[in-house]
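FAQ: What does the model actually see?

It sees only this:
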Amino acid sequence: MGLVQTIIVVFGVIAIAYAAAHFKLLDERVGDGLSDFVFMIAAPLLLFRTMVTADFHGTAPWSLWIAYFIGVIIAWAASDIAIKLFFGRDNRAGVVAGVSGAFSNLVFLGMPLMLGVFGQEGFAILSLIVAIHMPIMMAASISLLHEFAMRRDGVFKGESHWAAVVTSFFKSLLHNPFVLGILAGWIWRLAGIQMPEVADSLIQTLGSVAGPVALFAMGMGLKKFGVSGNIAAALTMSAIKLFLMPAVVLGAAWFIGLPPFTAKIAVAAAALPAGVNSYLIATRFGTGQALASNSMVMATALSALTLAFWISVVTRIFG
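And it is asked to produce this:
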């Protein structure tokens, strides 16, 4: 299946799910249940199996991570500056804007897209980004910048000591199913244990549905969040996420000299819209919920076109 057909299928599933929620063919609790299934079971098993079985073709993860997170840092900084300079928002809103402009939806949209466009090899490279993406982004947004922003805005309500903040972060991290799936997969791989055929078939069966179920859950979730106000700010964050971040990662990948296939995955991952994490962080901050919700919904809709653009660009550049 070609690029255009894959984009149509991926966003077609999202649109059908959105319509099912909009016309109340399915209760919104169905979407919540599907999200829980993907988050707790299907995606962790898929990540576990990928860590165990994938051939990473000698990919140097440090070069990949450097190229990708250069884009994250610049997109985050641009979003933070834009929301405070042009829209007069506070430091907490700056963190929410940073997450909206730099936190790619690598799981619910990224996994099925990479599998559809680049196959299992592309998903294996994406998994290397996923392995450190969530821990780093959550640490930056909740543990570190959360403390900084709330202190600067004079509304600090969190832990009084950094040690307590760090301890709380690592406890939550070790309860994250994605992190546990990745860690378990690497441990199994390094131990050199042969996966029993029955266990492999069971894991593959559950993990194989992660992509379509994630897309359907995402579509229903977009209806629940909706768009209300802050349109200009949300469009600005969407533009940074969909254009600035992949452009920076493309430049970094070319400068560092990433292998062509790895570079394509890095840019495509950077071109993904923000996911629900931006809204969850905004809710914790008690500010910027509309900004995060609007950015997520609008960027996801626009990404049907921008993803096709960036994948076409990197295919022309890197082959």
